Q: What sequence folds into this?
């Protein structure tokens, strides 16, 4: 779909993080009207993967691995808060503009930021409304930090959201997420071949 391909280009080249904004802008640029013609989240993810395969084949695998390794280190550091990787780094569509997005869980919304500051990690806090289920929206803290030049966003959720992932997108589907062990498996599966190995 033309809109999905153009939106993927806008996301990758211009760092547009809001996928709905990217698809709307792509549709406008292509002169296509009507919400019915906008791509689904899955179509956009597929277009992003295709874009990286075609135009970033040399750099994307290394960029993705670096972000996944950084995510693993951060999640191990935050293990007490049951971290779960979400978003572009998990899905394999991350680019140079992508933050590593991790969900963490605590009864005390400020406990994670206190923990990080106690460890000498500077954090900026914002708030985001999150759809915890089909009937409940809740304001949640988002912690913004930088680790080794890679931006991170930690979404602090109540413990019950560990059992049932928040909903996202127009289809209101549960957010896909990965645990520490799942991320370790992914890194093992994508391990670069050693020189001289057959």
A:
């Amino acid at each position: 779909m033309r809109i999905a391909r153009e939106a993927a280009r806008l996301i990758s080249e211009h760092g547009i993080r809001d996928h709905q904004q990217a698809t709307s802008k792509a549709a406008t640029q292509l002169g296509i009207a009507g919400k019915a013609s906008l791509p689904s989240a899955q179509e956009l993810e597929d277009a992003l993967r295709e874009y990286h395969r075609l135009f970033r084949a040399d750099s994307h695998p290394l960029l993705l691995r670096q972000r996944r390794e950084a995510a693993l280190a951060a999640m191990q550091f935050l293990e007490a808060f049951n971290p779960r990787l979400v978003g572009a780094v998990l899905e394999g569509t991350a680019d140079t503009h992508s933050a590593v997005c991790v969900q963490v869980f605590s009864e005390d919304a400020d406990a994670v930021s206190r923990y990080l500051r106690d460890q000498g990690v500077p954090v900026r806090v914002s708030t985001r409304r999150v759809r915890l289920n089909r009937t409940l929206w809740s304001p949640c803290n988002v912690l913004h930090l930088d680790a080794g030049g890679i931006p991170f966003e930690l979404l602090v959720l109540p413990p019950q959201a560990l059992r049932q992932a928040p909903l996202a997108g127009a289809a209101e589907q549960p957010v896909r997420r990965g645990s520490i062990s799942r991320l370790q498996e992914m890194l093992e599966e994508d391990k670069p071949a050693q020189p001289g190995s057959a």
Observations:
- The chain has two domains: 2-55, 60-189.
- Strands lie at 84-86, 100-105, 124-131, 137-147, 150-157, 167-168, 173-174.
- Residues 60-77 form the longest helix (18 residues).
